[in-house]
Design brief:
The chain is mainly β. Helices cover 5% and strands 47% of the residues. The strands form ten sheets. Strands 1, 3, 4, 5, 6, 9, 10, 46, 47 and 48 form a ten-stranded mixed β-sheet that branches. Strands 8, 11, 12, 13, 14, 15, 16 and 17 form an eight-stranded antiparallel β-sheet that branches. Strand 39 (480-484) and strand 40 (487-489) form a beta hairpin. The two termini are 26 Å apart.
C-alpha cells in the first residue's frame, strides 16, 4: 500500500482531543458465536502506519506475539485464532495491546460466516474513568418482530494502564442500587453478564469498556455477534445527527444519561439510568437531528446492528476512511451553507444528492467509496460514517477515523509547520547551511498565513531583535527570491517590508524579520555578512490524494508462530 504523500499525523489538539490515532491501544475480542454458521470465527486487527520506520508490537496474554517495522502508509492485517475470544465470565489477560513507536490507526474486525462487526479502536488517550453502560432490552425490541428473543448481553472492562486499578460497578434496577468493587492488574480484563440493569463504572485509572452479545438475533434462525465500544462520559454530547443507514427496516434509539432529560426534537422525557428503547422510524425519510437537554450518549439499534453515534462536539475537519469491500456506504454530514466545499482526497466531492436534515443547519449525502481516502472540509467541521454490509444485507461499521479537528483551508494537514532557531549568531549563508544540516530550511513567509505562523513562533523568544529568513536577492537580476533548500523560487505574491525597505542592491542582498510586535514583525534588507540568528522551518504537509493497493499483507498469529503468506516463522 503506497501513499503519494507521507502519511504523518502530529497534530496537537486544542481542548478535548478526539483524534482516533495514537501509539497505545488496548482491546479484546468478545465471543462470536453466530452459531448458525459452521465456519470458525476470524478475529483481525488492521493496522496502518503514518510514519516511515514505525515499530509496531502486539501483546496478547502478557506475551509479545507480533513485531514489525512498517513504512509510511503501510497496512498490515493481523489474524488471531479463535482462542483469543473472551467467552468466560471471569478475569483474564486476554486483552490485546497494540503499541507503536509512531502514530498509527487500528481497525478491529470480528467475523464468523456472515456475521461481521468492525470498529476503529480508540487510542488509550481517548479512554476514560467513568462510563454508563446501557442495558439493551433486546426482548423489548424483537417482541414486535419475532416470536422469541435472547438476552445474553455481556460487559468487558479492560484495565488500560500499567498499574493496579480499582473499579467500582454500580447497577441500578427498579430503584434498587447495588455496588461491587474489584481490582484489575495491569492490562487485565474482567467479563460479566449484565442483569437487566443500567451499569455505571467508576475507575481509579483509565479503562476500555465493551458491551457485547455473542449471537443477537436478526431474524428467525439467523444471528450476529454485536459489539459496542462504549464512549466514556467525557465524550458525550447534546446534539446528534442520526444517520440514515440502508437496510435497517426497524430502528430504535437508546439514550444513556446520568440525569433526567428531554429529547427536544421529539419532546420525549427520559429518566436518568433509563434503558428503554425508543422506537425511531423517522430514518426512512433521511437523517434526523436529535437534541438533548443534557450531555448523553445515544445508540442507534436494529436487529443485529448497534451504532454509537458521534455527537456534534466530535465533528471534525478531516477523516480517514479504510473501506475493504464493495457496496460500502459513506455518509457525510456537513453544514448546508458549505456542503459544496467537501473534499475527497484532492478533489471536491461531486454530488447532487445532498438532503437537508430537518430542523438543523446540516445536510447529508451518501456516496460509494472503496479503499483508503481522506474526506475533509476547509472551513467547517463535518461528520463522517462508513458502513459495509454482510451478505444478508445487514450493515456494520461506524464513525470514520478523526485525523484533524480544526478546519484548514489548505487541506487535511498531515504535519504542521515546524520552526526552530539557535542562540548562535551567524551570516545569512551560514544560517542557510545550518538549517539544511538540521534537515530544515530558512523560514519562507510567502503568505500571510506563513508570516503569522512564523511570528507566533518568534513571540515565544526573548526580544526584540532581527532573525534571518530565506529571502535574498539575485546577484544577476537583482530580483528577490525565496531560497528553498538548494532551489530558488522567484514568486513574490506576499511581502511584509518595513518602511524604507527594500534597500538598494548595493547596500543589502539578504532579508531579516523583526521580532518586535511594535514593528508588526516586518522585514528589512540587510547585508548578508551581518550576524544574527536564523529562523529555520519545515513546511506543513497536507494530504493531496492517496493511492491504495487493495492487496494487504496478512499475518496469522497461531501458537506463537507468525505466518506471512503461508510461510511460517517461530518467534
Amino acid at each position: 500500500m503506497l501513499f503519494h504523500l507521507l502519511f504523518i499525523m502530529s497534530l496537537v489538539g486544542q481542548g478535548l482531543s478526539v483524534e482516533s490515532f495514537g501509539k497505545d491501544f488496548i482491546t479484546a475480542f468478545p465471543e462470536n458465536v453466530a452459531s448458525y454458521h459452521p465456519q470458525a470465527s476470524s478475529n483481525m486487527l488492521q493496522i496502518t502506519a503514518f510514519y516511515t520506520d514505525t515499530t509496531v508490537s502486539i501483546t496478547f496474554n502478557r506475551t509479545n506475539v507480533y513485531n514489525e517495522n512498517l513504512q509510511s502508509g503501510q497496512t498490515r492485517v493481523v489474524h488471531f485464532p479463535t482462542y483469543v475470544e473472551q467467552y468466560q465470565f471471569k478475569r483474564s489477560f486476554y486483552s490485546v495491546r497494540i503499541n507503536s513507536s509512531k502514530l498509527i490507526v487500528v481497525l478491529w474486525i470480528s467475523q464468523r460466516g456472515d456475521s461481521v462487526q468492525s470498529s476503529f479502536v480508540q487510542p488509550v488517550k481517548n479512554l476514560g474513568k467513568q462510563y454508563s453502560i446501557p442495558f439493551i432490552n433486546y426482548n423489548q425490541m424483537l417482541a414486535s418482530l419475532y416470536s422469541r428473543a435472547l438476552d445474553n448481553w455481556r460487559c468487558i472492562i479492560i484495565n488500560a494502564g500499567s498499574i493496579m486499578n480499582t473499579i467500582s460497578i454500580q447497577t441500578v434496577s427498579m430503584n434498587a442500587q447495588q455496588t461491587f468493587n474489584f481490582t484489575l492488574r495491569p492490562h487485565e480484563l474482567y467479563q460479566f453478564q449484565t442483569n437487566g440493569s443500567e451499569i455505571k463504572v467508576y475507575s481509579n485509572n483509565t479503562v476500555a469498556v465493551l458491551l457485547t452479545h455473542p449471537c443477537a438475533e436478526t431474524s428467525w434462525c439467523v444471528c450476529n455477534m454485536v459489539t459496542n465500544h462504549v464512549l466514556p462520559e467525557n465524550l458525550w454530547g447534546q446534539t446528534f445527527v442520526v444517520p440514515s443507514v440502508k437496510n435497517l427496516n426497524s430502528t430504535w434509539l437508546q439514550v444513556t444519561s446520568t440525569t433526567n432529560l428531554t429529547l427536544t426534537a421529539q419532546n420525549i422525557k427520559i429518566a436518568a439510568s433509563n434503558s428503554d428503547l425508543i422506537s425511531f422510524p423517522y430514518l426512512e425519510s433521511g437523517p434526523q437531528l436529535i437534541t438533548a437537554s443534557n450531555n448523553v450518549s445515544i445508540r442507534l439499534i436494529s436487529p443485529g446492528f448497534i451504532l454509537e453515534l458521534m455527537p456534534e462536539s466530535m465533528f471534525a475537519a478531516c477523516f480517514l476512511l479504510q473501506v475493504n469491500s464493495t457496496g460500502a456506504e459513506v455518509l457525510i454530514i456537513a453544514e448546508t451553507a458549505s456542503r459544496g466545499d467537501v473534499y475527497v482526497d484532492a478533489g471536491l466531492l461531486s454530488s447532487t444528492d445532498w438532503k437537508t436534515v430537518a430542523n438543523s443547519r446540516y445536510s447529508s449525502v451518501s456516496v460509494s467509496l472503496r479503499g483508503t481516502h481522506v474526506i475533509w472540509h476547509p472551513a467547517s467541521r463535518i461528520g463522517v460514517y462508513m458502513f459495509e454490509k454482510m451478505e444478508s444485507g445487514i450493515p456494520y461499521g461506524g464513525p470514520a477515523v478523526i485525523l484533524n479537528e480544526d478546519p484548514d483551508r489548505d487541506g487535511c494537514m498531515a504535519d504542521p509547520a515546524l520552526y526552530k532557531t539557535t542562540t548562535d549568531v551567524m551570516t545569512w549563508p551560514e544560517s542557510h547551511d545550518y538549517c539544511l544540516n538540521a534537515t530544515l530550511q530558512l523560514s519562507k513567509a510567502s503568505s500571510a498565513r506563513a508570516q503569522r505562523d512564523m511570528t507566533n513562533f518568534l513571540q515565544k523568544d526573548v526580544g526584540p531583535r532581527y532573525f534571518w529568513i530565506g529571502l535574498r536577492r539575485s546577484l544577476l537580476t537583482l530580483e528577490w527570491y525565496w531560497k528553498n533548500g538548494n532551489n530558488s523560487e522567484y514568486s513574490m505574491n506576499y511581502t511584509k517590508w518595513a518602511d524604507g525597505h527594500q534597500e538598494t542592491p548595493w547596500k543589502s542582498l539578504c532579508a531579516s524579520v523583526s521580532q518586535d510586535a511594535n514593528k508588526d514583525f516586518s522585514w528589512k534588507s540587510v547585508p548578508c555578512c551581518s550576524k544574527m540568528r536564523p529562523v529555520c522551518y519545515k513546511k506543513a504537509l497536507y494530504f493531496s490524494g492517496l493511492t491504495f493497493d487493495s492487496l494487504h499483507n496478512h499475518f496469522y498469529i497461531v501458537n506463537q508462530t507468525v505466518c506471512l503468506l503461508n510461510q511460517c516463522h517461530l518467534f
